[in-house]
Structures are given as C-alpha cells and as structure tokens.
C-alpha cells in the first residue's frame, strides 16, 4: 500500500463513494494538461474556422450571379452557422462520441466524467460547453481561470453546472480510479479500473442472478477483457468470483 500512497500524493484527488460502498479515487487533471488540451483543441478549431470562411465565400460566389444581396446573406448565414457549430459543437460532439474526450484531451491523457465517476452524457457535455461561452469569452478566460482555482475540485463554471470533473488517465496498468498493489494469492499486479468499469462491475454483480446465462457470459467477458485479462478460459462462476474479489479488495482498502 505504500506505493499506492506515494502514487496518490503526486495528484489532487477527488474521492467518491459509490452506492455499493466502494471508494473511488479520481486524480484531477490539473491546470497544465487542461491548458495544453485547450491549446490543441483551439488550433484544430482554427482550422475549422478557415474551412468555414472558404465555404462561406464559395457560397457567396455561387449565389452572386442571381442576387448580390442574397449572396451576402448566404455568406453571413453560412459563416455564423459554421462558427457556432465549431465553437460549441466541436466539444459536444467529440466529448459525446469519445466518452468525455476531445482530440486535445486524448493527446494529454485527460477525460471529463461525472463527479461521481460515471461517464459523461450528451446533456452533460452540452451544459458544460454552453457555459464555456461565459467562462472564456466575456472576460477572455478570466472567469474560467478564477473558477478553476477557487473551486475544490478544479471545476470551471460549466463543470459546476453539469456536475463534472476533468481527471487524468494513466496507461500500463496504472489506474485513474484506484491503485491496486496486489490482487490474488500470486501477488500479480491488479488491473486498472476506471470509475465507469467499477460501477459496471458493482451493478452487474447486484443483478447477476436475474440475468440470462448468455447475457452474463457476454457482460463478464467484456468487463474482464477490458481489464486486460483472458476471459475465455474462465467459467461463469470463476468470472463472477474474480470480479467480486476485485471489489472486495478495493472496499478493504487493498488489504
């Protein structure tokens, strides 16, 4: 457990307790990765703005022979629609289809999740990004910056409204929801469980008895494979026991 303690001391951590009385640790992303992600996303948005400008000019040229006034109106409509889509739609679309990540967030290894550890939804992303306009544009980012540093969980205004946080993700069996020092009699390193996977395991075990065998086999295979283990060699009983042991180990604080 000493390694786990030293690991978490390097990060600001949000600790939440699930309905299954399981404690999850979510290392917050911090200012550096979030700023770098914003820089990357802003550069990509700039490319989008150039494309919108070219499209607006092209639409105006096409409409010009018919009516110059109509051509100007078409150019304005295309430009405004494109700008709104890029400013707001860029973040909402990517965070929805990439489960809380944009290209910038994926590059820097961070992700938006609900404050309780659950995955981001379309509504959550829409709310947090609508407030991005208040965070950044009226004050050139001052509102968002102040809100980030004064809130307990490094939340800007959009995060507070949508009840979301931005967390770090780690690779090579280093988790972002909890740090497993040892699991099992052989003392093999534990799998990296995300908050979403932890929730799925608890929900599955809570209703496994009511599920058909085929569905249980499919669900457990997906979960165990997600953890990086081979599920095909395990019986259904072994799969259930393995998943239960992970949650029990975590609930005991790794003891």
Overview in brief:
By secondary structure, this protein is mostly helical. Helices cover 58% and strands 8% of the residues.
Low-confidence segments, ≥5 residues, pLDDT <50?
1-8, 171-192
The SS-based structural class is mainly alpha
> Please, what is the average pLDDT?
76
Helix-strand pattern? HEEHHHEHHHHEHHH
Number of domains: 2
Q: Kindly provide the radius of gyration, computed on alpha-carbon positions and rounded to a whole number of angstroms.
A: 23 Å
Oligomer: single chain
Distance between the termini: 8 Å
How much of the sequence lies in strands comes to 5-15%
The amount of helix comes to 55-70%
Shape descriptor: elongated
What is the number of helices?
11
Instruction: Tell me about the largest β-sheet.
Output: 2 strands, antiparallel
Give the spatial strand order of the biggest sheet: 1-2
Number of strands: 4
Structure description:
This protein has 2 domains: 138 residues, no CATH class; 78 residues, no CATH class. It is 58% helix and 8% strand. The strands form 2 sheets. It has a two-stranded antiparallel sheet. Strands 3-4 form a two-stranded antiparallel sheet. The protein is built from 11 helices and 4 strands, in the order αββαααβααααβααα. With 255 residues, it is mainly α. Helix 2 packs antiparallel against helix 3 and helix 3 packs across helix 5.
């Amino acid at each position: 457990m000493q390694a786990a303690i030293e690991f978490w001391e390097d990060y600001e951590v949000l600790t939440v307790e699930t309905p299954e009385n399981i404690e999850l640790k979510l290392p917050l992303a911090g200012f550096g990765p979030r700023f770098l992600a914003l820089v990357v996303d802003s550069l990509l948005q700039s490319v989008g703005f150039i494309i919108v400008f070219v499209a607006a000019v092209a639409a105006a040229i096409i409409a010009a022979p018919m009516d110059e006034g109509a051509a100007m109106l078409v150019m304005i409509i295309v430009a405004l629609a494109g700008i709104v889509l890029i400013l707001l739609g860029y973040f909402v679309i990517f965070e929805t289809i990439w489960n809380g990540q944009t290209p910038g967030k994926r590059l820097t290894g961070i992700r938006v999740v609900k404050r309780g550890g659950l995955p981001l939804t379309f509504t959550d992303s829409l709310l947090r990004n609508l407030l991005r306009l208040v965070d950044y544009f009226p004050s050139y980012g001052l509102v968002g910056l102040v809100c980030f540093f004064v809130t307990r969980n490094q939340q800007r205004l959009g995060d507070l409204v949508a009840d979301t946080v931005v967390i770090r993700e780690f690779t090579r069996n280093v988790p972002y929801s909890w740090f497993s020092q040892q699991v099992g009699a052989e003392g093999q390193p534990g799998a990296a469980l995300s908050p979403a996977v932890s929730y799925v395991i608890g929900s599955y075990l809570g209703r496994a008895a009511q599920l058909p065998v085929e569905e249980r086999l499919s669900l457990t295979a997906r979960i165990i494979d997600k953890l990086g283990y081979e599920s095909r060699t395990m019986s259904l009983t072994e799969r259930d026991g393995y998943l239960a042991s992970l949650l029990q180990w975590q609930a005991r604080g790794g003891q």
